[in-house]
């Protein structure tokens, strides 16, 4: 068995099954649009479904009790407590106590048990805890339901925490669902993909070798492929359901579903013993309905990251920007408002300009272990993207990828004006470090974005698109990645008059970037932003005082300070002011009414602007730098063509 790969084993088992007459419908190769079929409406046997809490799970007796360790994780079927003993012959029993002793004989001391079943009937938690073994319950429905994101998140956190706390104790984690294959395998593969730099094929194969036949439900395999954006080799065949799990007399999914879900069982059996199977099946069918939702720039993307890993990544970002390694503030460069005082910089230095997208600011850290969005709170969320290196040869999934590359950019949502189809896009406007090495000046950094980051992705994507068996699916990534274009100052009139009105995402002004500057962390006095007068804004902390009076606060050297005398108007009657108390709100200035006007809440920010920033914005508002002023700041002769601008805007020409 050890010499066979997952694909070889599955293929051999399928041939044997066909020869022996088991047949069954063929499982299709990975299809990203494949969805689980709803549970069958036919329940074998009597309509009066009974429920015995001490009934054995279907196929449990002949299912092997456990597999080999994968690092420090042991996959297992569910151990059954003493209440099941009268239904199990002695040599088939597998209780919590026996699981502990059997692993101990193999030199594996258990330190934690993670229970993925959807019921509490199999054993008592104290069967583990009285032996000094930790116990964590993560309810996963099983059957045709892949573990949800919250369950996966909790599993990763628990295993990661155990690993860090017992790094030198050589203790093991026993993970079980009912039979220790599909839910257990899915979770272990998710952990392997996050903790090691391996392909999905390798992760699935490692679980197969440790616990044959591995994951045998096509839905689980499909979901892993879709989630990680990978396609398995053409030789991959999902294994047939193991012989010990098959039953000729009943629908095994329904039977095992009854036994591994207290809630479902109680719904299907009422006091009289007659179950409302119609309603139960309807709930299962509804679980497969996918309702599309409108994208917003405030959507939470990616997955949370363990705190110990966040600290190490913060340290890297701070060090590459030559900041204190323990700094907790967002290190990204911030522009200052264009005023008549700093307008002269555009004539004294070499500047390029770009549109100011009204999106969400993120830095993006690329490592071999994954990619991480970094928000304004200096928090990290893991996402799944692929960034091959520019010098990588065609080595497939094992080829060279970026490691410790740090980008800066903004997330926007492009909307087709005709079809209203939305697409999320990350616009990269700076490259702070590439594979751990800092770059300067901006002219070199900006050119390297295309050469070292975007072009290798596009080249590989084009190659994979032509392949009948791609090792990676770029089309399954959560968003597109593109370099943001910059133009000579002489193109400012064209940007304002033709380019910005044709953009497929909102823009609130212009950015003026010094062409020869190094990357400046936090406030960069030479990096200028100009906003349309009606969109010049300040981010305040809103507090609601006595008599529901809204009060505006700013930070003054890091401390909250109430801005006495400032008024704020909420002109949208549907806004719930009380719900905004304690939140950061963006406000624009109305000079006629001499009042700040609420624009929107800023969930991406946890602190208001500093008072010094407020003064610069207020000065910019009072200076009233108009579109005409912005257009007149251009002094270079050469400009981009309209077709080049259209391409940057995402407009077909």
UniProtKB/TrEMBL annotation:
**UniProt biased composition (Polar residues):** 634-644
Q: Where is the active site?
A: 177, 356
Its GO biological process annotations read: 7-methylguanosine mRNA capping
GO molecular-function term, one example from the UniProt record: ATP binding
Q: Where is the Tyrosine-protein phosphatase domain?
A: 85-234
Q: Give the transmembrane region(s).
A: none
Q: By what name is this protein known? A: mRNA guanylyltransferase
Species assigned in the record? Artemisia annua
Its lineage reads:
Eukaryota, Viridiplantae, Streptophyta, Embryophyta, Tracheophyta
């Amino acid at each position: 068995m050890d010499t066979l790969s997952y694909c070889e084993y599955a293929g051999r088992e399928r041939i044997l099954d066909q020869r022996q007459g088991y047949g069954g419908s063929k499982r299709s190769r990975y299809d990203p649009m494949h969805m689980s079929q709803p549970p069958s409406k036919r329940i074998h046997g009597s309509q009066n479904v009974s429920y015995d809490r001490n009934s054995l799970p279907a196929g449990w007796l002949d299912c092997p009790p456990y597999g080999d360790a994968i690092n420090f994780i042991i996959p297992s079927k569910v151990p059954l407590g003493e209440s099941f003993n009268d239904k199990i012959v002695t040599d088939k029993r597998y209780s919590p106590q026996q699981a502990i002793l059997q692993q101990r004989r193999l030199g594996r001391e258990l330190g934690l048990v993670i229970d993925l079943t959807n019921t509490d009937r199999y054993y008592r938690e104290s069967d583990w805890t009285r032996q000094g073994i930790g116990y964590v319950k993560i309810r996963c429905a099983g059957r045709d339901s892949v573990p949800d994101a919250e369950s996966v998140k909790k599993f990763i956190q628990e295993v990661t925490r155990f690993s860090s706390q017992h790094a030198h104790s050589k203790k093991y984690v026993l993970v079980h669902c009912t039979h220790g294959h599909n839910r257990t395998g899915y979770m272990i593969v998710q952990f392997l993909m996050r903790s090691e730099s391996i392909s999905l094929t390798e992760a699935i194969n490692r679980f197969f070798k440790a616990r044959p036949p591995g994951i045998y439900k096509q839905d689980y395999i499909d979901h892993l492929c879709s989630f990680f954006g990978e396609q398995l080799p053409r030789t991959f065949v999902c294994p047939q359901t193991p012989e010990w799990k098959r039953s000729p007399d009943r629908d095994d999914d329904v039977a095992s579903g009854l036994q591994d879900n207290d809630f479902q069982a109680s719904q299907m059996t009422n006091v009289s013993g007659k179950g409302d199977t119609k309603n139960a099946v309807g709930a299962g069918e509804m679980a497969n309905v996918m309702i599309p939702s409108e994208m917003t720039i405030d959507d939470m993307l990616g997955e949370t990251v363990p705190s110990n890993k966040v600290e190490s990544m913060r340290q890297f970002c701070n060090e590459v920007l030559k900041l204190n390694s323990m700094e907790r503030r967002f290190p990204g460069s911030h522009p200052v408002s264009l005023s008549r005082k700093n307008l002269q910089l555009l004539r004294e230095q070499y500047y390029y300009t770009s549109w100011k997208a009204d999106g969400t600011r993120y830095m993006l850290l690329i490592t071999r272990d994954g990619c991480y969005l970094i928000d304004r709170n200096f928090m990290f969320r893991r996402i799944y993207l692929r960034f091959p290196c520019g010098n990588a040869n065609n080595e497939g999934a094992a080829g060279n990828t970026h490691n410790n590359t740090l980008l800066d950019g903004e997330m926007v949502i492009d909307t087709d004006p005709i079809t209203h189809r939305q697409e999320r896009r990350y616009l990269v406007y700076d490259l702070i470090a590439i594979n751990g090495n800092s770059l300067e000046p901006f002219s070199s950094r900006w050119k390297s974005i295309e050469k070292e980051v975007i072009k290798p992705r596009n080249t590989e994507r084009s190659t994979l698109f032509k392949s009948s068996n791609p090792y990676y699916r770029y089309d399954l990534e959560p968003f597109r990645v593109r370099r943001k274009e910059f133009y000579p100052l002489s193109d400012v009139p064209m940007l304002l008059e033709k380019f910005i009105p044709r953009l497929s995402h909102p823009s609130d002004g212009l950015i003026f970037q010094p062409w020869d500057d190094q990357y400046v962390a936090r406030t960069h006095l030479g990096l200028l932003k100009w906003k349309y007068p009606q969109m010049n804004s300040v981010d305040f902390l809103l507090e609601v005082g006595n008599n529901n009076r809204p009060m505006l606060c700013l930070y003054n050297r890091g401390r909250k300070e109430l801005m006495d005398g400032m008024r704020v108007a909420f002109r949208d009657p549907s806004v719930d002011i009380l719900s905004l108390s304690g939140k950061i709100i963006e406000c624009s200035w109305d000079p006629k009414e001499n009042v700040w006007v609420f624009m929107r809440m800023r969930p991406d920010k946890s602190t208001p602007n500093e008072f010094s920033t407020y003064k610069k914005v207020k000065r910019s508002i009072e200076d009233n730098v108009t579109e005409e002023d912005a257009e007149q700041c251009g002094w270079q002769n050469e400009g981009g063509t309209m077709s080049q601008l259209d391409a940057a805007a995402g407009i077909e020409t």
